[in-house]
Amino acid sequence: MEATGPPVRESVEFTRIVAFTDGVFAIAITLLVLSLEVPADLRGADLHEFLVDSWPQLFAYFLSFAVIGRFWISHHVIFSLLEDFDRRLIVLNLVYLSLVVLVPFPTELLGDYGDQPDSVVLYAAVVGTAALLSWLMVRTSLHRGYVHTEQRVRAQHTAAGLVGATVVFYISIPVALLSPLAGQLFWLVMVLQGRVSPRARAR
Predict the structure, then answer these.
(1) DSSP 113-140
(2) 72 near 23, Cβ under 8 Å?
(3) pLDDT in tens, 62-85
(4) Residue 138: which residues within 8 A CB-CB, separation 6 or more?
(5) What are the residues facing 147 on neighbouring strands?
(6) Least packed by Cβ within 10 Å: which of 104, 121, 130, 134?
(7) Could you give the count of Cα atoms lying within 13 Å of 193 in the half-sphere of its Cβ?
(8) How far apart are CA 131 and CA 120, in angstroms?
(9) Does the pLDDT value for residue 172 go beyond 80?
């Protein structure tokens, strides 16, 4: 595809897509902290008990902050490699963002009802599907030649990480049906995967 104008990353359309996407990510992360509510007039033992009982909400918050942060980094990498885009990519991006901004809802459920299978399953389904859509954006960009040849390896590494996240969260669904706690612990595989990946890339 021959260039007929300025580089795509300097176009108004591309700038609007990135700005809108960053805005959605910012809103999603802001909504996470709004789910952390502190009752008024807590004193002494009541405050201590509240802090002890709040660890599930804090776990859900930091987990989702890490998930959304990782999605943002992957999205930044994907769009930094693009030399062109089309309507299909824009639609995929919108559907993807609809799930990113939905994450605070299952996060609040996970914090309040983390011992219930339905909460864990919903969280895994939302995050796993978001990772799948992010992977689809990478594959679409590669398939349609929107990524420069010299950057294809980097895009493929990003796609591999997204596949890993998708598999981890989807596999955790049947695990959570048997044990909600085991399903949440299974997500640690994603964290370990994130630590292993840089070493693999360095080989």
Answers:
(1) HTTSHHHHHHHHHHHHHHHHHHHHHHHH
(2) no
(3) 999 999 999 999 999 988 888 888
(4) 78, 155, 156, 158, 159, 162
(5) 82
(6) 121
(7) 18
(8) 16
(9) yes
